[in-house]
Amino acid sequence: MELIDGKAVAAQIKLELAEEVKKIKAAGGKTPHLAAILVGHDGGSETYVASKVKTCEEIGFKSSLIRFEDSVTEAALLQQVIALNNDTDVDGFIVQLPLPKHISEQKVIETIDYRKDVDGFHPINVGRMSIGLPCFVSATPAGIVELLRRYQIDTQGKHCVVLGRSNIVGKPMASLMMQKSNPGDSTVTVCHSRTKNIKDLCLQADIIIAALGSPEFLTADMVKPGAVVIDVGTTRVPSDKTKSGFKLTGDVKFEEVAPKCSFITPVPGGVGPMTIISLMKNTLLAGKKAIHFA
Amino acid sequence: MELIDGKAVAAQIKLELAEEVKKIKAAGGKTPHLAAILVGHDGGSETYVASKVKTCEEIGFKSSLIRFEDSVTEAALLQQVIALNNDTDVDGFIVQLPLPKHISEQKVIETIDYRKDVDGFHPINVGRMSIGLPCFVSATPAGIVELLRRYQIDTQGKHCVVLGRSNIVGKPMASLMMQKSNPGDSTVTVCHSRTKNIKDLCLQADIIIAALGSPEFLTADMVKPGAVVIDVGTTRVPSDKTKSGFKLTGDVKFEEVAPKCSFITPVPGGVGPMTIISLMKNTLLAGKKAIHFA
Predict the structure, then answer these.
(1) How far is A28 from chain B (nearest CA, A)?
(2) Nearest residue on chain B to A194, judged by CA atoms?
(3) What's the predicted TM-score (pTM) here?
(4) Which residues of chain A from 129 to 188 reach within 8 Å of chain B, CB to CB?
(5) Cα–Cα distance list, A150 to A6, A147, A182, A274, B126 (Å)
(6) Percentage of chain A lying above the pLDDT 70 cut
(7) Going from the N-terminus, what domains does chain A have, and what CATH number goes with each?
(8) Which residues does residue A264 pair with via DSSP β-bridges, in sequence order?
């Protein structure tokens, strides 16, 4: 069994990105600039955004943080989105989700200029990914594909079972794994809450991507010997063993599943660290106008 | 075994659409207007477009046919697309594919205003379908979903195996069948040329949607008793028994598969007739501004 070390891969990519930014700057090019809009004071969102800003600094990107209180109107938020669309110095930007209930997340997402949509949530980017065209792929699926690539995991003709059909992980993951590409070219099965024989299906899988948000859902009896297991779950489970009072828990019962696998990602330190770094890669692509140049 | 009579369903929907158009006109509303651009003189394309124009007339839609020779430049074609985008009388339009090799189909598709993209090929419509938002669903997948609905075939929690991963059938079909909707809510497996154990997977399927374009690929030994089989194949196979010299052949070996099925579509007369009628439904939706009203 080999542990997929997302933390190490992310650190390596960070160095690669920093190197490329250095070269761009040395050649007189523009410093890539990521902006983030943060509404309110949700603990998770604060942490994520702070981490994104910090990673920008480490890589050499310019970053901007725009804050609103929870009481901000949808109109005011949309106005800010449009301002960032029109700001030629900003290469890409994100609106940290979730948003307060009085604001339509979908409306906000669709107002973002798809050429600056480094989160890859705009329907144009989702559609282009499905068709197999260049696009911003959302960060978590992109990070998983990058892990498969760096660990040279053979995916062609393999049976990949995706657990979960969320718009931000399950569906795009299925879409990427079935494309004629490498990684990709897998036979793909998508399971979800309505699936009846999930254990039978998992037992057939060469690759399992677990993104249900259901702590320790995948147990050893559901996994074929030699399978590759990617754990996307990050549920905060109460714990008296940590200072924070909770423990980040994946969708995989790691201790019993790991010995059966050829490769497995831990939680934390697997998929998680790849998410922010994938956003950074998208920002660099946006800065270079490498995806959408129309 | 029950035969899914696509011809009869299409005829029924045609009456329903004609009835609705009559009401719209009686209330002083605008007559829905579908335009089609046809480049060159490909036999298949001529037939399809002629059939679309005829169906428009039967339903009471206005239709326009714009023809170009094979030698038309991409720029001239794009100019025509933009003219239709700006023509307020045209509710929806299609550019009949395939196009000559010197023209980028993708560029043409992406130039179409997505609000008039009744073929549902624009990335925005593809992306919105994946996310589960209102959109124009492309005609063949929409027609198949409509058949499942009209025959009240239970899809929730069923295992649906899609054979083929084309952008116009396989991928959208998978996307629709996994949505939280009815029809939909299925466990979905997508098989394709790289799939190794396609027979094993088909044998597990409650619903098989065959869209490989491989004549008589699906044989009786690959089908579980009681399965629902939808045949999307329409390959022209040479035949000395028909006047035309060819026979339209599906992906399913009908004679031997049919007796094992609970429901099956024939070729011709199954999915085929639903395709044009789905385009007509999209045109009516476009005329009513029912999907994209932004």
Answers:
(1) 33
(2) B157
(3) 0.96
(4) 130-133, 156-157, 159, 165, 167, 171, 174-175, 178, 180, 185-188
(5) 10, 5, 11, 12, 30
(6) 99
(7) 30-134 (3.40.50.10860), 139-272 (3.40.50.720)
(8) A3, A229
